[in-house]
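Lecture 7, part 2: worked example. A protein chain together with heme C.
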Amino acid sequence: MKGKPFYPFAVTAMLGILVMIVLSFIGNFQQADIAQEGENGEEEAAEEEFDDPIELGEHLYEQNCLACHGGDLGGGSGPALDGGYSEEEIITAIDEGPGSMPAGLVSGEEAEAVAEYIISETE
Ligand code: HEC
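Predicted complex, written out as structure tokens:
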């Protein structure tokens, strides 16, 4: 009977470790879910918040373009955008990503909103 009293402890310990592993996996998944919900929530908020396409465009500009094209369209690593670009030129640039500019940062209505914002600032 030597060693037998250890058996339940060993089982309990192993179960405990198993439970910890399972719980931490569940925790990871839940965290990912929460993070995703947060992102979706923000997107919905963005759509609700900006009825005015120019305000939406400004918001999208700040998120996607400002790092390279500067505050107030003044330029940075990308050229200044206050030089009278047409809506078509802006949307083409967004779609094609000239030079080192990444293509397709925004698309569709969002690209139009950014273009409208840029034009509204340069008129
Ligand atoms: C990673 C930096 C970067 C980001 C982000 C960026 N751009 Fe650019 N952009 C550039 C660079 C660099 C050029 C110049 C490319 C060239 O002609 O070589 C450029 C050029 C342009 C041009 C001029 C195209 C032409 O025909 O002369 C427009 C318009 C433009 N970007 C709009 C945007 C808009 C709108 C956004 C946001 C959706 C944006 N860019 C995001 C770097 C960036």
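The mean pLDDT is 86. The pocket of heme C is lined by residues 64-65, 67-69, 77-79, 81, 85, 89-90, 93-94, 98-102, 105-106, 114 (CB under 6 Å). Keep this in mind for problem set question 3.
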